[in-house]
């Protein structure tokens, strides 16, 4: 792979790494407490399996990206890396989708199920979750671009061989 094709991929992976690490750090540091009817409750990311899944998937994608930043690009593992990039993009998308759904319930509640919104009581927590989701969206978009760019490079290799 030539230098002109490695630089954009390196920059996209660097952007994805920064976004995934930011999403993890923001989500892990999200906590707030409120007192309702003389009962204190804490809002933390560990209270929801969805938020734990989000943190885990972003941590895995960040670790994978960090490994690939130092992976020699002269190897013939392009197809395997393309498949793994696609899997990372799908895992990031699924974790973001789940978190957006839970965040919407936290923000607006669900009157049909009798669930009350909590963002009025714990705004700091909700702001952190929103920031983590924004960083997660940046990571997902970066991975989408990585997949498109990798696919383009793999298709060009096929065109050159025939």
Describe what this molecule looks like in 3D.
It is a single chain. With 162 residues, the chain is mainly alpha-helical. 72% of the residues lie in helices and 7% in strands. The protein has 4 helices and 2 strands; from the N terminus they run αββααα. The chain has helices at 3-28, 49-69, 78-108, 123-161, and strands at 31-36, 39-44. The protein has a two-stranded antiparallel sheet with strand order 1-2. α1 runs antiparallel to α2, α2 (49-69) runs antiparallel to α3 and α3 (78-108) runs antiparallel to α4 (123-161). The chain is elongated. The two termini are 17 Å apart. InterPro entries: CASP/CASPL (IPR006459), CASP_dom (IPR006702), CASPL (IPR044173). Residues 5-142 form the Casparian strip membrane protein domain. One of its GO terms (cellular component) is plasma membrane. The chain crosses the membrane at residues 12-31, 51-71, 83-106, 132-151. It is found in: Cell membrane.
Write the layout of secondary structure elements.
Blueprint lengths: L2 H26 L2 E6 L2 E6 L4 H21 L8 H31 L14 H39 L1
Antiparallel strand pairs: 1-2
The proportion of strand residues reads 5-15%
Low-confidence stretches: none
Largest sheet: 2 strands, antiparallel
Question: What is the topology, as strand order, of the major beta sheet?
Answer: 1-2
Measured on Cα atoms, how large is the radius of gyration? 19 Å
Secondary structure class reads mainly alpha
Q: Helical amount among residues, as a percent range?
A: over 70%
Shape: elongated
How do the helices and strands follow one another from N- to C-terminus?
HEEHHH
Total DSSP helices: 4
Total E-strand runs: 2
Cα(first) to Cα(last) distance is 17 Å
- Mean pLDDT over all positions: 86
């Amino acid at each position: 792979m030539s230098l002109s094709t490695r630089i954009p991929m390196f920059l996209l992976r660097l952007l994805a790494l920064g976004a995934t690490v930011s999403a993890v750090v923001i989500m892990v540091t999200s906590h707030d407490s409120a007192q309702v009817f003389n009962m204190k409750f804490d809002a933390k990311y560990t209270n929801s399996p969805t938020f734990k899944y989000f943190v885990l998937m972003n941590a895995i994608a960040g670790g994978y990206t960090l490994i690939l930043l130092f992976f020699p690009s002269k190897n013939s593992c392009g197809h395997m890396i393309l498949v793994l990039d696609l899997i990372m993009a799908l895992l990031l998308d699924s974790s973001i989708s789940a978190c957006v759904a839970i965040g919407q319930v936290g923000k607006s509640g669900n009157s049909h199920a009798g669930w009350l919104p909590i963002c009025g009581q714990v705004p700091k927590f909700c702001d952190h979750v929103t920031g983590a989701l924004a960083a997660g969206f940046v990571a997902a978009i970066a991975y989408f671009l990585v997949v498109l760019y990798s696919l383009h490079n793999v298709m060009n290799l096929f065109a050159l061989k025939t």
